[in-house]
Design a protein that fits this description.
With about 280 residues, the protein is mostly helical. The protein folds into two domains: about 35 residues; about 220 residues, MetI-like fold, CATH 1.10.3720. Helix 6 crosses helix 8 and helix 7 runs antiparallel to helix 8. The longest helix has about 35 residues. It is globular and about 70 Å long. The model has no long low-confidence stretch (mean pLDDT about 85).
């Protein structure tokens, strides 16, 4: 086999694997999209030609499902989590990046180690604590849990972005009379903005899709969208047409968000990868 033939074969294999991966990822989404517009009979058939209906999207917001309440809960919890996590994580990440502290490595390893703990291990302490202080089935309780989940991730991610900012720029500004806070506000934050946005997106997605803690710690008033999907059941089984419609509603904000900030997202990921 000549070098040209070998190169052609390698390219063909790469294209085949890429197409296979795309197919595996998109086929379930395509099925959900079709099922969302089918009635309860057509949803069990694989036919592509059917009479579409928007009835499913109306039904999910009506009793007994009340998806609108769960949408509000998920939106508030996810947004507040991001608004609290990113500023705190940014300050912590800046301290780890710019200052040498006793036990710095141990602290970083400890922060990273929290990501390896199974959720079922730490959910019981949260449940007992929230039961004692009255935070079960509250949005504030979910926000606290989500902060515990996303903060270690956000600190590590933002630290990588800040490490990529030249230290000489900050030192020059401080020589010119700027304080540390002025350097952070006028130099670090603008330069790290794409990275902060990227970390915020990941934190929002994690909070938006969080399932296990919301399942255990909520019951009625603060149920979120992922938990609400379990309500679409009837005597005959799962209501796949309503489940699909609700799934589209859950995915739509993420899709719109990705389209709106895709350029900043790519820039932030590239910035975090360069050292």
């Amino acid at each position: 086999m000549t070098g040209k033939q070998r190169k052609t074969l390698v390219n063909a294999i790469q294209i085949t694997l890429i197409l296979l991966a795309i197919t595996v990822m998109l086929v379930p989404i395509f099925w959900i999209f079709l099922a969302a517009f089918k009635n309860h009979i057509d949803v069990f058939q694989l036919k592509l030609l059917f009479t579409p209906t928007l009835e499913n999207f109306r039904l999910v917001f009506e009793p007994p499902y009340y998806l609108g309440r769960k949408l509000i809960n998920s939106t508030i919890v996810a947004f507040v989590t991001v608004l609290m996590a990113i500023p705190a994580a940014t300050m912590a990440a800046y301290a780890f990046s710019r200052f040498r502290m006793v036990g710095e490595t141990a602290m970083l390893v400890t922060i990273l180690a929290t990501q390896f703990l199974p959720a079922v291990v730490i959910i019981l302490p949260f449940f007992v604590m929230f039961r004692e202080i009255g935070l079960l089935d509250t949005r504030f309780g979910l926000i606290i849990v989500n902060l515990a989940i996303v903060m270690p991730f956000a600190i590590w991610m933002i630290k990588g972005f800040i490490d990529g900012i030249p230290l000489d720029t900050e030192e020059a500004a401080m020589i010119d009379g700027s304080s540390r806070l002025q350097v952070i506000r006028n130099i670090v934050l603008p330069m790290a903005a794409p990275g902060l946005l990227t970390a915020g997106i990941f934190c929002f997605i994690i909070s938006w899709n969080e399932f296990l803690f919301a399942l255990i710690l909520t019951n009625k008033d603060s149920v979120t969208l992922p938990i609400g999907l379990a309500l679409f059941k009837a005597e005959e089984g799962d209501l796949w047409n309503l489940l699909s419609a609700a799934g589209i509603i859950i995915m739509l904000p993420m899709f719109i968000l990705a389209l709106a900030i895709r350029n900043y997202f790519v820039q932030g990921m590239t910035m975090g990868a360069v050292r």
